[in-house]
Amino acid sequence: MRLHVPVALRWSDLDAYQHVNNVEMFRLLEDARITAFWRHDDADLEEPWPTAVLDTGPRATSHTLVARQEIEYLRPLGFTRTPVRVEMWIGRLGGASMEVCYEVHDGAQHFDRTGPTTGGSPYAKASTTIVVVDAATGSPRRLDPRERAAWEPFLEEPLTFRRR
Amino acid sequence: MRLHVPVALRWSDLDAYQHVNNVEMFRLLEDARITAFWRHDDADLEEPWPTAVLDTGPRATSHTLVARQEIEYLRPLGFTRTPVRVEMWIGRLGGASMEVCYEVHDGAQHFDRTGPTTGGSPYAKASTTIVVVDAATGSPRRLDPRERAAWEPFLEEPLTFRRR
Amino acid sequence: MRLHVPVALRWSDLDAYQHVNNVEMFRLLEDARITAFWRHDDADLEEPWPTAVLDTGPRATSHTLVARQEIEYLRPLGFTRTPVRVEMWIGRLGGASMEVCYEVHDGAQHFDRTGPTTGGSPYAKASTTIVVVDAATGSPRRLDPRERAAWEPFLEEPLTFRRR
Amino acid sequence: MRLHVPVALRWSDLDAYQHVNNVEMFRLLEDARITAFWRHDDADLEEPWPTAVLDTGPRATSHTLVARQEIEYLRPLGFTRTPVRVEMWIGRLGGASMEVCYEVHDGAQHFDRTGPTTGGSPYAKASTTIVVVDAATGSPRRLDPRERAAWEPFLEEPLTFRRR
Lengths: 164, 164, 164, 164
Fold this sequence. Notes:
alpha+beta, Thiol Ester Dehydrase, Chain A, six-stranded antiparallel β-sheet
């Protein structure tokens, strides 16, 4: 099962070639990840994302470190007011780390927050390896049973990259 | 009458002090301006903003230049998933230019797109002077009657800045 | 007397119009300010800037808040490998605050770090009001005699803005 | 042989954790790439980089597309006024594409622009696959003999990533 996260573009994501810049594409993924993985206290976020179980953030007891990233850019993305739809899933759930996989798709205003891929040709495919660390010691800490239970429904095959 | 434009924050808008960076605040204003003033062809933008009459964009016949900006930061803005609400109006409508005024407020998920200020204490007050230029010649061109008619309902007193 | 601070552009400072974006211009000013006002511990910064007396930074006893900014964009700035030259001076030295004034000029590889304006037509003129606050209490604190002595040589007439 | 490219940090490269953000690390690599691969017309860039043979840029006859990127973050990078030193080389030279490899190292004010690695423990290792396309048609075009001759001295073993 995948998460479907809407991410709003900014006009400044475009570079002088008038497409979303290759670096900014990682910014969109960061935004999707923060929506999906962090617990937010905003009263008016209507339904919590199913995976928002990780109590991180600058003042929390756990931090997440980005250890590795990989991306393939498949077609150029222009500016649109409609948020893109980032499909996210977990390709590997390790002891203290996980591999988050993404496909960046055309947005559509109404879509379910979770489900299988909607198909179509993505703008980009990417993966991020995240390590969960204890905020006090900075050392990796094991994912706990509550976290595993929240994330296991989102385990799917990891991405295979074409050009590697 | 004011436009009420929701603008989504990104976690990367925070700087090392964990507040929205002073420069990024101008990014939020740019985003509000592009939502409100540009004509977008996205089929799925449900209702066009009342002021989205300006056919600009890189391939259009008119461009807008930012000639001047001014801002007062009134209180720090932390990260929130709820978009902030940018109240926008036009403080002065000149021959080929206009002064756009803004107040950046706490967001709320449901609010009318136009109306009077909702009050409350803004995070920032700002203004931008925009000049409309002919894309072919680069020279300022006069606002046309259709543009004036669209914008006049949004004329209000310009901001007065406290610290000037 | 003015400080002459070189600030390197990044290609990503350009927006889809292929000029340095109006928001990024404030980023260049932030960079100049951090070079000039913060004390840096880098052993290999050959000569400390004369005004680098402020022991700020996230872990320091003082912070600086940006309270207000104003800018006039005078001509478009394209991408160049040569850093631009930001001329900086202090337009007003208050009890707990100061107004920093800037002109953004064409760079040149060799120039004195301090001196009068080199003349020429700037890309932009701007000012920033900075308030120095006690990091522990968050309250404004008075500039101390050592800070005043370091900054007084850089007091010049504040900028006058044409379009205000 | 490697290129050693100095890249200046900006304070805004830090995120709320007070380290250079994982996305901004790709920005530093973009900056190194533009310094090294693009031909610049700046009269005052003292010595052209040996590889600055590619006549790209928005108005040129060739464009470069970023097709793929991969990175491993090895240790956190804080803010420093000293530019970091990006060691770059070419890991693979294909018909119309190449793989650029990087290591991001501590900067030092004086270092040779080309040479072997200076050793030490990098902050990050990364690679970017670049495709050269004809600007008019958008199709990949073959690297020409002059380009190959300029780049061949910088061919080294491609990076091996630990965590793949």
